[in-house]
Structure formats: structure tokens, C-alpha cells
Amino acid sequence: MGQRDDLIPEDFLHHLQKTVPGFKGEEVKHQMALARMSWNGSSKRRQHLHFDGHASFTHQELEADFGRGKFAEINGRVEFFSVTPNWSVDRSYTKGYLLSDLARQSRDAYLSTDWRKLTKLLSGDGTKLKSLPAAVASKDMGGMTTTAWRNAKALNKARVDLASLAALRRWLVQRRDDWRAGRAPVSLFSDIPSLERIEWLADTTAQIIRMAKTDVVGNGYVLHRYVQAKSGRLYAKGINLQTAPTIIKEAALAGLWEYDFANCHYAILAQMAAKFGYQCKAIEHYLAHKKATREAIAEQAGITFDQAKVCLLAVMYGARASEWHESAIPDAIGVEGARRLYQIEQFVEIKSDIQGARQAILKGWPRTANGRLTNAFGKAISTTAKSEERLAHLIQGVEAKALKTAIDLYPDSIVLLQHDGFAASARLDSKAIEAAVFDATSYRMELEEERIQIDPDAYFLKTQNPKRKRPKH
Fold first, then answer.
1. How far apart are CA 327 and CA 387, in angstroms?
2. CB–CB of 357/293 below 8 Å?
3. How many Cα atoms sit within 13 Å of 468 on the Cβ side?
């Protein structure tokens, strides 16, 4: 489970030792493994795709942390997780892991704390972190040495607005309590979020707040540690702001500047296809009328604007165009929504463009001596990989090169990487970055700029009562 990078607060381990019977009697390394599973199990990366509310851990991870076949024995003694009996190799999913009532109550109690003191951070074996590690791990996901990100100087700590996070946390807790008491909640979005969604948002906000109060990083800063994927892309480990929900990210980064490459993957795909003689007419129309296209697809499919955006990205990477309930798109919008989506002319034309572009790119892309495809970041992929995986590898290579170019230009200002953009502590020269990216990649990419602010009409400001006394903890 990434023992080096999946860090936990020291006082969380102490809390579990005090509140979960039998926990303290286990070996320290097993205590740490269970604590990490509890702390990181609710993260986006760990959410199970088939069992709602469950986390996903591979048997290789469990064997590395507990020993071969030992997890079931230890979990049986401590009764920390309930585990689903079913899993599938063919469909690539693990068993589902859900905290037991007792372990959940312990975690809930910890996350309801109003922390006033800094805590230490513990690595996988229980060692206290004494200094900030480099932002990017020295080995990538394939075990190869990583040297490309030498200028990522400011990425290991991100400043967060603790006051805004605290306001958001109070609002979410109130909405959660309203749900539990049977009272209708005030809407956050166009649709009222479920109790499970509210609980997850509240828990994640609390975790970000706690991670912003550690001695090694400093009060008001969250440690970020990235690992490079085989395509060159960087993924943040553990509890982080890269994968945090937007409302939490906005509260945390209030006042900073956010930069996103506009419709990054489609922009790269269209230009990449053109290099090999294929014109993406439907995609080019989408790029020129991004908002209108998403709105039209959303209206015709009876889904939200954000869901239309997700579906358009999913179909690029091989989301099955069917109504099968375990396909990515039906999982996101439901079977009926998927059925309507697949009948929309614009969506069908974009999907057809993707297929044509993919075929032209993979056919024309130069091969290495051993037949592999090397992307713009210098990372190769085998031709035996699925066509969707090869296309993703090539597109993400351009994306990674573009982000690296921006970091090389502003190494001291960029403080958080997102998959198609970044956050900066100061306003940057967008045009200079666009020009540098074109020089480095030969792709024209438009950079959208926005000051991260709290909307004055935002839910967690509207519901604040300045006369209300602060509850005691």
C-alpha cells in the first residue's frame, strides 16, 4: 500500500490503540497497516468500483503488509474490516473492504476532533518523518529511476486556507446531522447529495485539515508526494488535494491561482490525429463550442453538465458504448441515461472521430527497434497493450511534458499538480507557458487562468451565523 508514501498522523494511531480492543496487542507493523487502510481507504483512489462504500486493496498489498494469508487471521482477532467474499480476475476487481462498526466509530470520533496541536507523520513502519521528502518519488510505478522532475521544488507542500476548510467542515457536519435526523438538507448542487456523499465530503475535509497540522510540514501546509506513472504522469499519494473533491480544493486553495489546459486530451488528440492525416471534424467542433456541446448532450441525455463532461472523457479511453451496467458510463449516469446518451448524434459523431483518430495515430506512430511506442515524455509502451491504453499513453505523454515545461518555467511558484493543470502561489504568464509548451511538444494548448476564490453565494458561507457560539470539544 505504498508504505513510504501513505503517511498517517501519529495521533490517529494512538487513537486506534486506545479505542479499538485488541488493536494495541498486534505487532506495530500490522497496527500501521490497519491504520493506513483506515486512513486512506476512503480516498478516491481506493474507492471500490463494484461494492459501494467499500475500499479496494490487492492481495499483493495485503501480503506485503501482513504476510502471506495473515490478513484474515489478524482481522479476525481485531474485527477491523468486514470483507466481501466475492472478487473477479476477469473483471479486474478485488474483494471489498468495509470498516466494522467499532472501527468506523473510532475513526468517526477521531475525525470529529477539533485539533489544536500539531502531530507527527508516520511512515509505513511507524518511523516518524523528520524532514520533508522530495516532491516526486525517486522510483516510478514500474520501479525505474525518475529524474525528469528535478525542478519540482515547491510541490512537496501546499499552503491551505484553514479558516475556509473549517467553515466548510462545519457546514458539512450540519448537513450530515440534518440527514441523520430526517430533515431535508439544503441543496449544495443542482441535485441534493446523498447522505453517503455528505459523510465522505465531511470526512475528507477533516483529513485535509489534520494533514495541515503536522510538525514536519508546518501549520497550514499539506505534504504532497507524487509518483510517476509509466506514461510520465504524476499521481499524488495518500490523502491529497490533487484528487480531492472540487469544493474541498476550492476552500483549501482560496487565494491561489489555478491554471488548466483547456479540454486538454481532446485538444491533443485532434492535433495528433492531424499529424497522421485524419481530421477530427466532430471533435474540432466540440473544441470550438465546448460549453454548448456539453450542455446539449446533457440536456438530451437527461444528465448533468458535469456528467456529460465525464462521459466525453470516458469514451475517449474505451468506455464501452453499451448499456451493460458494469461499463464505466452506465455506472456514472445509470442505464437509462446511457441508453439516451448513445442515441445522441453529437456524441455518436465524437465517438466515431475518436475511433478514426485512434486508428490513424496507432498505425502511423513510429516504432522503436523492438516495436514499442514512445510518447513525448520518452516513455514506451508495448504494442500488445490494448489500443485504448496505447492512445492514452501517447496523449498523457504530451500532457506530462506540458506540465513539466510549466514547472521548469516557474519552479518556485507552482505548488500543486493536477492531471491537466496546476495551482500556483502567484499569477503566472499564461502566454509564456503556452509558447514554451509548443516549443517543447509541438502542440498548441490553451491555458485557462482563474483566481481560486470562495463564491460569496457558496453554501458554507450562506449558512454561517457569526453569533453562534463555537461548540466545545
1. 17
2. no
3. 9
**Cα–Cα distance, 283 to 317 (Å, whole number):** 15
What are the residues whose beta carbons fall under 8 Å from the beta carbon of 410, sequence distance 6 or more? 424, 428, 433
Neighbour tally for 9: CB within 10 Å: 23
pLDDT digits (tens, 9 = 90+) for 20-49: 999 999 999 999 999 999 998 887 778 877
Residue type, 211: M
Quick one: 394 exposed, middle or buried, by C-beta within 10 A (0-12, 13-18, 19+)? buried
Task: Please write the tens of the pLDDT for every residue from 135-151.
Answer: 999 888 888 888 899 99
The mean pLDDT value of the chain amounts to 88
Measure the CA–CA gap between 378 and 332, rounded to whole angstroms: 33
Cell numbers at 348, concatenated: 455518436
| Secondary structure letter of residue 318 according to DSSP | T
Q: Are 420 and 234 in contact (CB under 8 A)?
A: no
Q: Are 44 and 246 in contact (CB under 8 A)?
A: no
Give 130's DSSP letter: -
Instruction: Name the DSSP class of 187.
Output: P
CB 260, CB 430: distance < 8 Å: no
Which 8-state DSSP code applies to residue 443?
-
Q: What span, in angstroms and rounded, lies between the C-alpha atoms of 425 and 158?
A: 9
Could you tell me which of 33, 49, 29, 36 has the C-alpha nearest to residue 9? 36
Question: Residue for cell digits 510517476?
Answer: 228
- Residue 91 neighbours by CB under 8 Å, 6+ apart: 50, 326
Q: pTM value?
A: 0.87
Element containing residue 114 per DSSP (H, E): none
Per residue in 246-298, pLDDT (tens digit) is 899 999 999 999 999 999 999 999 999 999 999 999 999 999 999 999 999 99
> What are the DSSP calls for 239-275, one per residue?
S-SSSS-HHHHHHHTTTSEEEEETTHHHHHHHHHHHH
The pLDDT assigned to 42 comes to: 81
Each residue's pLDDT tens digit, 308-333: 988 998 888 765 443 333 456 766 77
**Are 225 and 5 a contacting pair, CB within 8 Å?**
yes
- For the purposes of burial, counting CB atoms within 10 Å of the CB of 274, is it exposed (0-12), middle (13-18) or buried (19 or more)? middle
